[in-house]
Amino acid sequence: MQTIKYTFIGPIRQALTMARLPQKGALKDEQLHVIQEAGILIKNEEIYEIGPYWDLYPEAQSIGAEMVNLKGDFVALPGFIDCHTHICFGGSRSKDYAMRNAGVSYLEIAKAGGGIWDTVTQTRKASLEKLAQLTVKRANRHLKDGITTIEVKSGYGLSVEDELKMLRAIKLANENTTADLIPTCLAAHIPPKDFQGTLRDYLKKIAEEVFSILKEEGLANRIDAFIEDTAFAPEDINSYFQKAKEIGFDITVHADQFHTGGSQVAVDFDAISADHLEASGDKEIELLANSDTISVALPGASMGLGVAYTPARKLLDAGASLAIASDWNPGSAPMGDLLMQASVLGTFEKLSNAEVLAGITCRAAAALNLADRGTLEIGKLADLIFFPTDDYREITYQQGKLKPSIVYKNGRLV
Ligand code: NIG
Ligand code: FE
C-alpha cells in the first residue's frame, strides 16, 4: 500500500494556473487566472488543493503536510510541455549548419544526400543503450529548464529494425529520467535510400511489421509523417495514415514547412496536430482554424534555418489553437531552448504572455492528448515550476534567460 504524503508549498507571489482558458483562438493577459499569495497542497503526485496560501494553511497543518516555505518572490506555473522534439539521435550536423550559413539551403543539402540522411547513418551506428543515454542527457537538460513533459520522435532509423531500436531506446530513456517522454513513430520522415522498392512498399512494410509491435510493447501511440517535396507526398501517405487510424493511433503531421499540402492532410485525417506551418498561407490558416487540429509553431526551426516564423498571430486571430514546441533536432533546430524560442516568437509575432505561455502548457498538453497536466488544478499532476520573480511578465520579457529555480515533477522536487 502506498503511504500518503502531503506537501504544502508557499506562499507563492503569483500562481498562474493556466486554467479556464479557451482551447482555441487569441488570448489576452487579462484572461489569465492568477492567484496572488498562493499555496499549493500536493498529495503524492497530484495537486490536492490550490488557492490563497492562508486559506489552505490550516488544512495543510492539520493533515501533517510537509511545509515548504518559499523564501523570496516566486511565480509558479505548470511544468512546461515540449510537444515536438527529435532528441533521440546520434552524431551532429554542425557541418550542415556551416554549409547553410554559406548559402546552401536545407532542401539542397537533403537533395544532395545529406541532412536527415546523415543523422540516419549516425543513429543506425549507435547502440540502443547509447541512444537512450543521449536522450536522457538531453531530456535532463530540458527538465532543468522546467520542461517536465517531452515528446520524442523516432525517424532516424527508417527501417523496421532501426525504427524499433529508436523507440525502444526512447522507452529505456523514459525509465531513466524524471521527465515524462511521450514517444511518436516518425518512420515516414524521409524515404530510406537503401530500401528496395517503392515508397508505398516501404510504408506498407512499416504499417504491417511495426504498428502491431508498437502496441504490444507500448512503444508509441502516435504516428507522424513529413509531407514535403523531399519527403512524402499526400498520395503516398493516405493508406498509411488510414491503417494507423484504424488501429487507434493519434495522427500528427510535419506540415507546410517549405511547401503547402501537409495541413490539408492533417485536417483530412483529423490529426491531433499539424506542426511547422512556416509556409502556410491564408487558405491553410483558414483550414486549420476551422478544424480541431492544433497548430504547432516551431520557432527553433526558423532560427536554425534562418527562415520566416510560423504565422502564429494570423492563426490565433483566425481562431486556431496554437502550441509552441522546440523541434530540438540535430539539423533544423539544434538549440533546444523552448522558453527562449517561444518568447522570441512572441516578439516577432506579437503574441500576448497568455498566448506564449498557453502554447507551452495547456495547449501543448492538448496537442499530446494529455488531460492530466498543463494547468495547475485539483487532480492534475503536480508538475510545478517556480521562477524567481514577482511578476509573471518577467518570464517572456527576459526572453528565456530567466529560468525556473525550482522544479517539481509528479509532486517531487527535481
Ligand atoms: O521537424 N522537417 C523535418 N524534420 C525535422 C528536422 C530533422 C532534421 O533536420 O534532422 C524538423 O525540422
Ligand atoms: Fe520536427
Commentary on this structure:
By secondary structure, this protein is an alpha/beta fold. The chain folds into two domains: 6-79 and 376-413, Urease, subunit C, domain 1, CATH 2.30.40; 81-367, Metal-dependent hydrolases (TIM Barrel, Alpha-Beta Barrel), CATH 3.20.20. Helices cover 38% and strands 21% of the residues. The protein has 17 helices and 16 strands. The protein has helices spanning 53-62, 94-101, 106-111, 116-125, 128-144, 160-175, 199-209, 211-217, 234-247, 262-268, 282-289, 299-305, 312-318, 338-349, 353-359, 362-367, 393-397; strands at residues 6-16, 34-43, 46-52, 66-69, 75-78, 80-82, 147-153, 180-188, 222-226, 250-255, 273-276, 294-297, 322-324, 384-387, 406-409, 412-413. Strands 1, 2, 3, 4, 5, 14, 15 and 16 form an eight-stranded mixed sheet that branches. An eight-stranded parallel sheet has the order 6-7-8-9-10-11-12-13. Helix 5 crosses helix 6. The longest helix is centred in the first third of the chain and has 17 residues, at 128-144. It is globular. The relative contact order is 0.17. The mean pLDDT is 97. Residues 86, 115-116, 119, 226, 254, 257, 301, 327, 329-333 line the site of N-(iminomethyl)-L-glutamic acid.
Q: Number of domains in the coordinates?
A: 2
Largest sheet, if any? Answer: 8 strands, mixed
CATH domain class of the largest domain: Alpha Beta
Q: What structural class do helix, strand and pairing data support?
A: alpha/beta
Radius of gyration: 21 Å
The CATH architecture of the largest domain can be given as Alpha-Beta Barrel
* Residue fraction in strands: 15-25%
Topology, number of strands: 16
**The CATH topology of the largest domain is what?**
TIM Barrel
Distance between the ends? 24 Å
Mean pLDDT: 97
Low-confidence segments = none
How does the overall form come out from the CA principal axes? globular
Summed up, the helix count is 17
Q: Mind telling me the CATH superfamily name of the largest domain?
A: Metal-dependent hydrolases
Bound small-molecule species: N-(iminomethyl)-L-glutamic acid, fe (iii) ion
| Residues in helices, as a percent range | 25-40%
